[in-house]
Structure formats: structure tokens, C-alpha cells
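Subject: two folds for Thursday's group meeting

Dear M.,

Sorry for the delay on this. The cluster queue was jammed most of the week, so I only got both jobs back this morning. I'm pasting them in the order they finished. Each block is the input sequence followed by the predicted C-alpha cells. Could you check whether the formatting survives your parser before we put anything on slides? The first protein is the one we discussed after the seminar.
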Amino acid sequence: MSFILSLHEMIAQMLKEKMPSGTNLTEFLTGLLSLSKAAVYRRLDGKVSFTFNEMAVIAQAMNLSLDEMIGNIPEQCHLLKLKIASSWNPSETDYRLMEQSVNAMRWLKQHPDSRVEGAINLIPDSLYTPYENISRYYLFKWIYQYGYAQKIIAYKDVEMEPKAHLLQLEYSKALREASSTSLIFDYLTFYYLVNDLKYFLSFELITREEINLIQKDLLLILDDLEWFCIHGKFKDSEQKLFIYISNINFDTNYCYVDTNKLHLTMIRACLLHNLVSRVEETFDQVKDWVQSLKRSSTLISETGERSRILFFNKQRALIKSLNDPDTNIEEFLLGF
């Protein structure tokens, strides 16, 4: 009996954690399982067991595995989910995945101790999503790189679905609501982007006019980033933001979310998506690595004025080189 009560406590706790803010758990389960409120209360109180079929229905609706629901994850098994929601002709399932990601990040605003920290070599969602040309470019590259189109398409053929882009904006805004954010930039972040743009330009998949629009957005992102560094906070949420520059290169984005109720690890995969883990060991490893990298990086937020000016001058010169096909961008490979 004690095991049954413990099991129901774990299931109830998991459901409460996963419920979107403002959603009543009892009403949700009443509609999902076609049960009366009294029957749902008995299950949540542990007086009646959830049937296997009911647990399967809940798991499917909330994008959970049965192991996650009951906390039955072997120590040697690190559970990872590749959160893939297609922004190219998204289905209702894709939209549901996007909405779940948005709701998960909205938890940050409710926790005054929330922290988001990461090492990045790709401009983060929280910076680029307000800029249509950059958002469109990343979608174009994703389609090109991972073969989701039946044929190679040009940048001009890519259009973002308004609903998908709106959800991306909401996700980015929710991320900026963390009480404290620390971002460690690979010093070649903008070099990687400019190098790719020159590649697509050389194959005429992006036109010179489109490059100019992307370049304009990139310069605006740099202006935003410099403002964040000078003031040490985001403009809209006014939450703390610390920017570091690393001379050590890394292969993708590594991020962790830390609150007193949630530890989450996100590793960027397939350009636009995240491998997501709630395993404590994974969280500790990524957190330790990010903290170690931070100690060997240069802080340019509210301090290090000389380093900050040098960094932004170099990035602006790199981005402006998009207008000059003869510029050798290899000179920008030198360390920060």
C-alpha cells in the first residue's frame, strides 16, 4: 500500500509541474479521461489507482514517457528528448510541442531565484527572434541543411508561418524573464554566420539584396547586445544579463535552467532544436562545465570597457564585410 501511495504522489507531483500556468489539473484530467471530478479526486488522493490506459493517455497528452511519470529512470539511463517542432509547414502536433516549450519557460517568471546560463556559438533565440530576416535565414538554413524540402530551395522561397513565429517570440520573451541570465559567446559566433552567408551567396541561394537585409538585422542585434552589456540587463524584462566572450571554441549551444523546483539541461541539436534533459547528473555536468568556461572568459557586461569596444568593433567590421566579396574574413579568426 505504501508503494501505491508513493506512486500516486509522484504522478500528482509530475502532473502539477507539467501543467501550464492557469490550467486547473482536476478539470484537465476530467476532460482528458472522461471521468467525473469525484473520480479524478480519488485518483489524485491515492484512494483509487490510475489504470494503465489512463496513464498512457495522460503521458501522450503531456508528451511524457511512463518512466518519467513514475520517476522510474535507471541511474545508467539518461533520458533525453529531441524537441523537434517543424517551423516549415507545422502540424498541430508541432504547434503543441511549441506551446509546451513556451509554457515550460513561463515558469521562470514565477521563481525569483531562476537562472539561465549557457555557452553559445549560435545567436540565441532570445536575441534573434524579434528580427524577421535573421529568423527567416535560420529557418532557410535548417531546411537546406537537414533536407526537409524535396528539393533545394532559395531563401526567397522560405516564409515563416505567423503562428509558429509568434510562439517563437513568446518562447524568447519567457526566457528573458529569468531573474539572471549569463551567456558565454564563442568569439567566432558571428564569424560562423558570416561564413555561411557568403557560402549561400556564392551559390545564388541568397541574393545580394537579401544579404543587405540580413546584414541590417545583424547590425541591429549587435546594437542590442552592446546596450545589454552597457546596462547589464534586457531592455524589456529588465532582468539581469551577463555577457562573456570565450576564446575557447565549442561545437554547439549548451544551456541550463536552474530554479528551486526545476533543473533543466538543453543542448542544441539540428540547428533549431534542443535535446532536453531533467537528469540531475546531466544538469550538474553541464553546469560545472559552463561555470568553468565562465572563469576563463572575459566579462564585458558593465565592466571591461576596452574589451567590449574591441569586440563590437570587430564584429561590426566582420558583418560589414558581407558587402565586399573580396574581403578575406580569415583575419577575423584571431582570438579575442
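Second protein, same layout:
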Amino acid sequence: MDLKTLVTWTLTCDLNLPDATWYVDGVEHASGETIDLVEGSYGITFLEVEGYITPSSRTITLTDDTTIHVDYFESAKAEEATYAFVNLVGGATATSYPVFYTNTPPSVSRDACRTTELWLRRIPAGTFTMGSPEDELGRYAYEDETQHSVTLTQDFFIGVFEVTQRQWELVMGDRPSYFKNDDYYATRPVESVSYKDIRGSSSTRGAGWPAYGHTVNADSFMGRLQARTGLVFDLPTEAQWEYACRKRAYGTCWETALNSGKDLTASSGACPNMDKVGRYYHNGGSNDSETCDTSGGTAKVGSYLPSELGLYDMHGNVEEWCLDWYGNYAFGDQIDPVGPTSGPSGTYRLRRGGSWYDGARSCRAAYRESSGPSDSSRYSGFRLVLLPGE
């Protein structure tokens, strides 16, 4: 007899709804109940509870005593919801991904919201001051950060986190990032991906913003996500990115360098205010070993303080691609700006937020960086937007 077949382990499933139940191969169990199972793989499903989003079924392979934590989220109508999330459990071969809406924020203490679920937060339409004052510490005289009024007329959802390596892997089926330590990769932001990897390279599709709108190439990340959800996911415009970064919980927007309401304390070297809101060179970014843990290089997304709206890592970690060509700001007040019709010689796309390897000045809310759309450096990643009215 093969003695391995007699090895048993315990399985416990904790649910955040006390009256909800879970099923192993069709047998019902209460929340928090511990059962003994022979080593092997088991299908787990969950009770449907009216008014709540039923957690996705999953397969657990038992090779040790295991406890899993599973959350139910109260459901909401799409047009009224504060949050949306995409279930990526089906992976790169799935033909569709379910999309859910709720007013309950993600459980940031658990990593599902960083790996198998893509969470986004609604940003209400509004007006804000884009750019920085000329005397902001860290701004150089030659940088075009001229302050001007911008009005965004439509709500949009934006990623609570930067897209992670595991989320990219579940959509695209590969792992392109420089930071590749298997123990930590899943919850780190994906990097080493270009604008063209994200949207595609056709001049009339993925590379065609703004003339061709949110049309993308089918084999790009956005192409696959759009096809599998039936919704318009894309990169944010530069204005959407900065508005989301600055937006406060009760209607106003910060005009400070950081979305904590603080300015920098120094234009170079360590900055205590930046230390609190994101990964940059002086709080771990100086270690650029590709096999380092998350104390160096990129941090696990959501490791630092969020904005008042619950957005993480808007400062540092990875520079985030935006839709726009790079160019000087248009003169005067703007409504729903989409950036220049082309960049200088059609060359550079915008990135925002600074990276793990940058100083604090490059992580300011108004700071503008640019790069060629084929650039796939280890400093660059992205954050999603969902456009519910498109």
C-alpha cells in the first residue's frame, strides 16, 4: 500500500459572514470549521447569500495543515458603487472574467486583492488645480508644471493598487519583471512592461491615442482585459492620474507635493514625508538586486499609507504609464484634456509618480516623466482605469 495516500491534513475556512457556509466536494461545512482530509486536491465552493457577491470557487492542494480566509462583499449597482473588482482566477486561458461592484473596500490585510482580484475605486467628476506652484520644493525651473484648472466631467474608476506581477501573469501568461524572487514576486508591481505591451503597437489601435480613443490591440494586456470583461479598461490620462492622486475624501483636492497633504522636507536625500507614502531610493530603493526581497527594489503594493480615497503607491514604487503624449501643457483652463495630438516627433509617452529608484522630488504629484512607448525599464509599471460610461 502506498502510505502517502494515508497522510491527512486539516483544512479550515474562515468566512467574514458567520452564517455563510463552504463546501468541499459538495459536503457543507460551517465558517471556521476544521476538517481532516487525505493529502490531495479538493474543490471548494461557497453558499450564495442574497445581497452579497459569492466568492469564486477554487481548488486547494493539501500538503500541510491549511487555513484559508474568504470574504463576501455586499453587492451594489454599477452606477452607484464605490468599488469595482475583476476576478482573474480563470487565468490567461479564460474566455471571460467576472466583474463585481460593491461599496465595501478591499480587505488589504489579505493578498487576494493584490493577486487574483483587480480592485478599482470610483473617482467622482470634478475640478482641480493641476501642476505645482513655481516655488514648490523639488521643482526645477525648466520643468513644465504650470498650474491650471482642469475639469473632468465623468466619473471613472482607478486601480487601488498598481497592477501586480501576479495579475499580469494571470492575464498574459508570462512574468516579464526584473524583480523575480519567487517568494515575493506575486504582490510586487509588474515592471519592465512598455506602453506598447500594455496597449499594443498598431498606429490605429494601441499606439493611436488620442486619435483612436480607447481602441487597443487584441493581444495586449488591455486588449485581453477588455475582451474578457466587455468593459473599457485603459491607462489613465495624465489629468485623471493627477486628479486621482490629489483627490481628498470630501470634495477638495490637495495642492501639496504629496497626497498626504505634506510637502517635501528636502529636494535631495531622505525625506520623512515621502518615507510614509511610498518606496523610493532612500527607504529601500537603493537595493536593486533582481532577487532581493521587498525590503529592496519594489515594495509589495499597499505597503505605505494610502491617499484619503484609499489609493496606494501613487508616489514611488513604479512610474506609471499614462495615455498622453508628452508635451507642454495647453494654455488656460482645460476640460477633459487628452494631451497633445502627438509628442515631440511622436516619440514620448508620459509616466507619473516616480519609482523605487528615484529621489523624492521625482515622486511629487506634479512631476512629469516621459519615455518612448517601446521602453520597458524596470522602473515602469501602470495602474488601470475603468470608464463606466464608455
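Two things I noticed about the second structure. DSSP finds five helices and 22 strands in the chain. The longest strand covers residues 8-15.

Cheers,
T.
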